Input
Amino acid sequence: MKKCVLYIFFSLILSSSFAQKERRLPKEHVIFPNTNEFYDDIVNVPFFTIPFRVLLNGTLIIPMVIDSVSDTLNFIFDTGNSSVTMDSSTAVELHFKTENPNRTYKGVGGTVPAIISRNHRLKIENHVFSNQNIYIHDYDILSTYIGLKIHGVLGLEFIKNYVIEINYDSNKVFFYQPNNYIFPKKWETLNLSFKPLTHIPVQLKEKKRKKASSLIFDTGAGLDLILSSEFVKEANFYDSNKKIIKTMGEGLGGKIDMNLTTTRRLQLGKNFLYNIPTFVIDDKNEIFNHPRCVGIIGNNILKRFNQIIDFNHNLVYLKRNDYFLEPFDYNYLGFNIIQSYGKIFVTDIIPNSPAEIAGLKDLDEVVCLNTNCANNLELYKNTIHKAKNELLIIYKRDGILSYTKVKIKSIL
Output
């Protein structure tokens, strides 16, 4: 029987904005376990630290060094992935020896064969971690949507060995030895479960309907919220007149159809978030295991909290940060843009969407968006994100320069 490696690979990639701040070790009122005595002057010292960049949709990009290669690689920091994985083209460039362990990757978009390369070294700061097994997967499509080469993913198999602090004030992930860490007193604490991915309890509300359940805690998901269609139907969660827009996304195994709407309220501990953009998908590969879990909470929500994850005791500590009050993006245009061979192209046009009504077609080459003619995917996606009522697009089709204006709709 084939074994299955669970991996949530789901890209609805928007633009990225990176911030670099001065290194700052966390310092809180802390309490030793099983005591009531406070200490104001204790600072936990990390075993090692990784800086990260935050994409506009919340995805974390960290630098990694593999084996004796001097180049720094771009990895996604992903609690929704059970393993350490690498892009297949990068594995070829680095001359990885591979084998097929008779396993599969199982994700929301499909199931693909797993290929493994054994006994590699990960280098983080001055620390070298030997005997690391790395699974191989094709990330080329993901890279074209982001506009940044994605070389791999750092998943739970490595992360779970430490107490992890994801700190958005300093843009760093701190890794602590579990036996030496003193946990903060004033952060909110929630129980986690591992089945085998990380699940967190939430309460969902839509008008008078309240449902307590759990969601996959996924720092690698560049989105807000996913719910399974099975849960939505069984709970009769949304009213029949709820605004729902058909769209698509990129999942493991290919594109997937889904519905885009909003959820009135999500409660995470004592924190309430309202009108959350929500994708509803058919969980054909039973990733969520409904009713035990009903979807995914992505990092566009999770980034609103600094987090300390204690894998030994199945706990997460949360503290609001400056992202908490950041508004959600309700804009809907009905197309995406990708980068290929140094050019930017329109793709994934949804039928009857504002993009189709404006006359755009797949593979139209983007020349300018509003006044931005930088031919830069990151800057273009940021322009789309900030657009208000309409978006001016200058494009080439069959070598002929044209333009159109796309009216921006709201999913609210």
Notes: The longest strand covers residues 254-268. The domain at 3-180 is CATH 2.40.70.10 (Cathepsin D, subunit A; domain 1).
